[in-house]
Amino acid sequence: MKDWNIIIRELREDNDYTQKDIAEILQTSQSYYAQYEKKKRALPIHHLKTLCKFYHVSADYILSLPEGLPYPKH
After folding, report:
1. For the chain, what is the radius of gyration of the CA atoms?
2. Conformational region of residue 19, where left means phi above 0, alpha means psi within -120 to 50, and beta covers everything else
3. Burial 60-71 (b: 16+ CB within 10 A, else e)
4. Which pTM was predicted?
5. How far is the C-alpha of 46 from the C-alpha of 50, rounded, in Å?
6. How many other CB atoms are found less than 10 A from the CB of residue 28?
């Protein structure tokens, strides 16, 4: 199972974007975004949502969660 930082790097590279390109989409600096890919900084939920929309993937995919997880029952 891959960590989220590897997945966001692979998504970026597979789509031929630079860190600067993605940083601009997230409205942050390239050096700040690079820290996400190095897992030196946590990925905020608002950036996760933006990346999901941009790459057309689910948060489950980026977070490497298994498919078909049951919802918690209260």
Report:
1. 13
2. alpha
3. eebeeeeeeeee
4. 0.89
5. 6
6. 15
pLDDT the model gives residue 66: 84
- Single-letter residue type at 2: K
Which residue do the tokens 């390239």 mark? 30
Q: How many CB atoms sit inside 10 A of residue 2's CB?
A: 10
Residue matched to tokens 């941009």: 54
**Contact between residue 43 and residue 36 where contact means Cβ atoms under 8 Å apart:** yes
Q: Is the pLDDT score of 30 beyond 70?
A: yes
Closest CA to 52 of 67, 63, 39: 63
Instruction: Please classify residue 3 by burial: count the beta carbons closer than 10 Å to its beta carbon, then call 0-12 exposed, 13-18 middle and 19+ buried.
Output: exposed
Model pLDDT for residues 39-50, shown as the tens digit of each residue: 999 999 999 999
Confidence of residue 74 (pLDDT cuts 50, 70, 90): low
